[in-house]
Amino acid sequence: MLLAAGSLVAGLAGCAGSIGAGSTAAATSPAASASPQLSGTVTVYAAASLKATFTKLASEFEAKYPGTKVALSFAGSSDLVTQITQGAPADVFASADTKNMSKLSDASLVDGKATNFATNVLTIAVPPSNPASISSFADLAKPGVKVVLCASQVPCGSAAQSVEKATGTTIKPVSEESSVTDVLGKVMSGEADAGLVYVTDVKGAGDKVKGIPFPESSNAVNTYPIATVGTSKHKDLAAAFISLVTGSEGKKVLGDAGFGAP
Amino acid sequence: MNYSGIPRWIYGLAVVGGLFVLLPLAAMVLKVDWTQFIPLVTSESSLTALGLSLKTSAASTALCLILGIPLAIVLARRPFRGQRFLRAFVLLPLVLPPVVGGIALLYTFGRQGLLGKDLELAGIQIAFSTTAVVLAQTFVALPFLVVSLEGALRTAGNRYEAVAATLGARPTTILRRVTLPMVLPGVASGAVLSFARSLGEFGATLTFAGSLQGVTRTLPLEIYLQRETDPDAAVALSLVLVAVAVIVVGLSYRRPRHATTPVEAAV
């Protein structure tokens, strides 16, 4: 563990060359005496669907690098891009789709290149009792079934649209929500018979909803990229956090939550 | 010359206070892409959302009048045990985050809600319908009517009503011929404010009614959605909503200079 941390720090020192610069808090740890250490606060802006995993990874990061703190901000990816382009002090941005990451790099606010670190696919979420007896994607198009989708303007909605197009199915939703959590909420409360959400949302909701995987979901795989924000004042910390997410610790936590490998 | 008695520094802070409200609005106006303004606000989805907003707000204003006038009269005219609590609860939606109102409505009228099951048996489905939008708007707008009217009723007093009663008028006649004409400006401004609040309703609608073009997606929900992909459209639509709000609030504050006496009002 210590060895891994040491080599990671050394590797970072090679590319970033700013380890320890601007560090204010002086924490003492065994690693500190061996190599320049990381300290300070790294601010991570992450897509709402990453809340559980990134919260866990943040505490792993703080444990791995004593003297550091991770400040997390979760919201819809496009909201986060807007906030960062308006000057929000983010060091790391993790998006739920490549489109929003491109928006940020188009604004010249991405340092280097973004790294894809996870994928997510859609699944059907139904209330535990499955009142409409949904068992396949085609069932969602049956008349009388109250289906809630994301609006096509948001990533989960465009993913749903891709699947509809690929399978030639037309779903008539009773509502088109502006976020995947709103879809999940409508299913959890029993208002809707079914909704299309991400595999990870169903896993995170525990036994409040039932997930029904469908093979057609492979028509729309969402890729999650992560990058250091160009205006970051803590690029060393940002790079270390990204290494953690893309490294073995990240893979484990993300995999446990239902994310796929990129 | 009138002595105003206002220290000069108060003016300074008042100017800052005014700017605090005006500046963000001005910033938004500056952000409007005027060459695209007309196509953006007249797109099919925008017009549908505006139409739905106006229709549902009108319906919820009517509902506010039907439910709010009796409530205000009871609160203003008849002291009773627990009145303070009732007033506090009626006013609660004023300070409650709308999303909380939405959750409360969901557990009342939703499919699994307190009344939802009976309603469903009766063949009435409220979730995801325009009715749900009207209920959400009425819930948040009702206090505006009640507050405004209760104030008017208290200010007017009940002397004329007492006189009318001694002359043999029945309660319903008094209400129709004396009380309501006397507080008509209060009813009007309360109705206008309720309409404005309904027009701006977002959180409770999103939580309770959902969002579907032409059915439940009102203008604020359309703005929220457009913002994801087309910020220019969102700004243009916001300006439309600001304009409507300015007109509505402007109307409600154009009050007569002195209170109308019941005699004048009744004629």
Automatic annotation (TrEMBL), chain B:
Keyword terms, alphabetized: Cell membrane, Membrane, Molybdenum, Transmembrane, Transmembrane helix, Transport
Subcellular location(s) of the protein: Cell membrane
CDD domains, A to Z: TM_PBP2
InterPro entries: MetI-like, MetI-like_sf, ModB_ABC, NifC_ABC_porter
ABC transmembrane type-1 domain span: 50-252
Keyword Transmembrane helix recorded: yes
Example of a GO cellular component annotation carried by this entry: plasma membrane
A molecular function (GO) term: molybdate ion transmembrane transporter activity
Transmembrane spans: 9-30, 50-76, 88-110, 122-149, 178-196, 233-253
Upper lineage: Bacteria, Bacillati, Actinomycetota, Actinomycetes, Micrococcales
Major subcellular site: membrane
Function field: Part of the binding-protein-dependent transport system for molybdenum; probably responsible for the translocation of the substrate across the membrane.
Species per Swiss-Prot/TrEMBL record: Arthrobacter terricola
Pfam name, any one: BPD_transp_1
Membrane topology according to the record: Multi-pass membrane protein
Protein name listed in UniProt: Molybdenum transport system permease
UniProt family annotation: Belongs to the binding-protein-dependent transport system permease family. CysTW subfamily.
SUPFAM superfamilies: MetI-like
Gene, per the UniProt record: modB
